Amino acid sequence: MIQASGVVICLGYIVGLLFTAVPFGGVWVLVLGIVGAVFLRRHRITSAKLPQKTEKHSAKTNALFARQTNPKPIIWIVAGLVGLFASLYFQLRVPQPGKNDISLFVPPGNNNNQEQLVIVRGEVASIPRLTRSQRGQFWLQVKRLDEVKKESNSAGMSKGATGKLYVTVPLLQSTGLSPGEQVAITGVLYKPKAASNPGSFDFQKFLRQEGAFAGLIGKQINILEEEHKWGWWKIGERIVRSQVRWLGIPEGPLVSAMVLGSKAVDLPYEIRDLFVQAGLAHALAASGFQTSLILGVVLGLTRRTRRVTQFVLGSFALIIFLSLTGFQAAVLRAVIMGFAALIGLALKRKVMQLGSLLLAATLLLVFNPLWIWDLGFQLSFLATLGLIVTVPPLTQRLNWLPSAIASLIAVPLAATIWTLPVQLHTFGVVPTYSILLNIISTPLISIISIGGIISAIPALILPDAGGVFAAVLHYPTDWLIKLVEFFSKLPGNSVAVGTISIWQMLAIYGLIILVWLMPWWQQRWWFASVIAVALVLIPVWHSASSLFKITVLAADTEPVLVIQNQGRVTLINSGDEGTGRYTIIPFLQQQGVNQIDWAIALHFQGNDSNGWLEVLQRLPIKVFYDYSATPDNILTSQAIQKELLKSKGVYQPLSLGQTVNTGSTVVQLINDQLPILQMQIQNQSWLLVGNLKRDELRQILKNKALVHPQVLWCATESLKDLVLALEPQIAIASNADLDPKIFSQLSQSQTKLFFTGRDGAIQWTPKGEFEAFIQATENRASVL
Fold first, then answer.
1. Are residues 353 and 465 in the same domain?
2. Domain CATH number, residue 608
């Protein structure tokens, strides 16, 4: 009875946190608790009246009913109150900027490329890491802020400031920095931006989760106090250096990441991306697997000692492991369950794994309720739940195989079943060969993890000794990398199905829970599987067969358009490398696009259009039309053609005036100097105008050589001239950095203005109006 009551109360707390996504969510949880109590009370009264036959039968039945009616109805009311408290507690723990937070001192002009230099003084709070842009990044606890005088470039007025700051500096500036050092950083403050495009990274949300509300682009660092404080990071750094010295790169960082977790190790991004794309991201995250290995080794070495000794040494090992990994949510969950196992061992009692998992999740969410929306926490909890409740029945169904092989299949399959719905809701991509790769790679991962842990122990005392042990892992690590590379290069290594809605995700989890708890569904698991697959694929098929949508992505100063027409996709322009990687690819994956039918390349920014190479590495392009094939970017054109050959795509160079017909869209480049691109999309006339030569643009307007489009895209500098001359219904520009007088003048016209830098991506469908992504996101959030 106590256990059942505790389960209900713990679930009430977790559900209360989940309901923070709904207005008045805590009140709804309380209402559910009251309804549950009333229902159970009536059921209990009705059940008590049923057995009326014999005393023997009555005693047995009453005992049965007593077991069935536990926990008591009052427990459900208590659970509802706990859920209400959880929702209020969550709101109290949401980070808010303090009175003197550094984010309050960000000059407004810094968001418009008018850099105001400042000097920020504070304490380094983390080990510097390498970013994708090859800069050093670390967290800074702010203490003071000095303004820099523009005339003398010296420190001006000083202000007291607090808060946490996301700092990036040139790589050499961050080399040698360590937590605890007092520094003064000269740079530019900025406020993080929310996601501007569907599927893109929300930097603002990420910083808020970390308790930070501003960033600093550092240019120079001056160390004020070289106070090297002791910390667990020194031990972790010693282990990493020992393993990297003897294994080299990338094998050394990979082994360290598999022992300490990727958050504690500066793992090369190409290796990190490779494992994530192949569906082996969990191998780089310190969690239950490493915890089980550590406990297994400790308990195996101390099996002949007293239980108290095993408990003490096991606890000591878990604490050291937790300290080295940096108190990550997944590790905390695994360590709490490890402690539960040790307590059960010491007390000679069997520990209920499911109860331990629920208790661990509740304790972690009491410690930090914001983790309820942390993807790493969600995946770790769900994967562990799958291992507890789904591996045993899967192993039984595979009893015709040797037990070792059955376990190799059941473990990754169970984890995938429970985590895939969340991954589809977040990313919309299925790693096709993930389960097979997990089965094949598990022996290698086990060998590397055990070897990494063994080599880490002597590295704490003598780095060279630890390195000798680590050197043995060279071949297994190299084989693992090559295995992952092989699977990542297979055709169809990942399939984008598009992100599913929260209701689809909840329905799929409902089916999984029914198969877990209900015997009728357990016998018909295949039927539940068919329904789950249909819940994902039917909306995808319907969207692909009926959807027509135009999306103007927020991509700095170049127009990037995606036209989706009943499953066929046209991409116009790609921007630079960052646009291709962080804007176009995430958007297409979110939309469930696995192939681009037509690509049209222009020369709007005068760059080499390196974004096309990023896109081609992830998605095949059937036909590539190149308006920008000039001697200036011949190398890029050759690289694009080489990538197209791999996927059997067609490369078609175009000259001025040639038209491209993609069914729903007719495209023609009518000027290659500005440039000017004219498009007819269904019944709409579009005009894309560059601004490389403004004098020529004015001459064209004077000669009235341009048609009056319904939709206009242009650079902000040309917006006034073009809107007043062409009078489009819709005008889209890259940023809203306009003179207030010009903005007021444009607002009086009949043209509706959008700015991708302010409004994010702009989308249109035949049944609706043009819609700004940021505004639409805010409206949907308010509804939730």
1. yes
2. 3.60.15.10
